[in-house]
Amino acid sequence: MQVRSVPPIPDHNVSHMKASNRTHWSIAGLIGSALLLVTTQASAAAHDMTLRLTAGSSWQERNDVQIPNTAEGTRFSLRQAAGRGPVDAIRLEANWMINERHGVRVLLAPLSYTKAVTFSEPVRFAGENFSAGDATDATYRFNSWRVGYHYSLIRNDATQLKIGATLKVRDAEIRLEQGNTVGADDDVGLVPLLYVAGKHQLNRRWTIGADLDGLAGGPGRAIDLGIQLDYSITRHWQIGAELRILDGGADTDDVYNFARFNSAAVAISVGL
User: Fold this and answer.
1) Where are the domains of the chain?
2) What does the pLDDT look like over 71-111, one tens digit per residue?
3) Alpha-carbon span 37 to 33, nearest angstrom
4) What is the reported pTM?
5) How far separated are the first and last CA of the chain, in Å rounded?
6) 4-271: which CATH topology?
C-alpha cells in the first residue's frame, strides 16, 4: 500500500477523483461482466444456479488507523471519531454448480461511509496535519469484489459442504478533508482467501447455513464470516436473515489499519 497526500489544488483534486472513479467503474465493469457470464452460462447449461441478495446495516466495532505507521503518523480511532454507525450493508452473490462437485461464485460487497468528525487531538495523516476541534470529513471505503472456485465434499438433499479458494479485489481508501487540507491513502490489490461453506435443511421449509472467506498470517488478516437462516417460499425462492462479521487489516511500515464490522441483513435468494 502506498501513502499518498493530495495537495489542496482544485484541478489536481478533480483529476484524482476522475481517475479514482474510472478505476472503480473498471473494477465494477469487470466483476459485472463476470457475473453476467456466470449467469448466462449457467442458464444456457441448465445447471444449478443461485442468486442471493442481502441488504441491511453494519456497525463499526473497531477501526484503528495510522498512516504512515511511523512517528510521522498519528494512530487514531475512526470508530471513536465517527461512531458505530450504522452504515448500509449490501451484498450480491451468484453461485453456479458446474456439475455435482465443482462450482464457481462471484460476490459483490461494497462497504463505505463518509462522516463529519471532530478530533479531540491533532492528527497527522498521510503527510498532512489536521487540527483538533475543527470539522473534518472522514471517508472510509473497503469494497470487496470476489471470484472463487469451490468443491463439494458433501452434496445431498439435506446437507451441503464446500471448500475452495477465492480471489478478492480489495478496493480501499481512507480520506480526511479539513478545509483545504486533504490527506488520502487508497489501495487496489488482489488478496487470496480460503473458502468454506455449508448448509443443512432442517425440514421442508427451513435451512441453516454458514460461510467463511478468510486468511491470516504475516502482517495482516482478512475474515468474512456469515451465518444464515432461510425459509423456502416456493421451490425456487427463499427469504431469510443473515448475521456477518468482517474483520481484518494490516500492520506494515506504510500503513496500520485494523477494522471490524458486524452486520445484520435480510436476504432473498432465487434458484435458476
Assistant:
1) 4-271
2) 999 999 999 999 999 999 999 999 999 999 999 999 999 99
3) 6
4) 0.82
5) 40
6) Lipocalin (2.40.128)
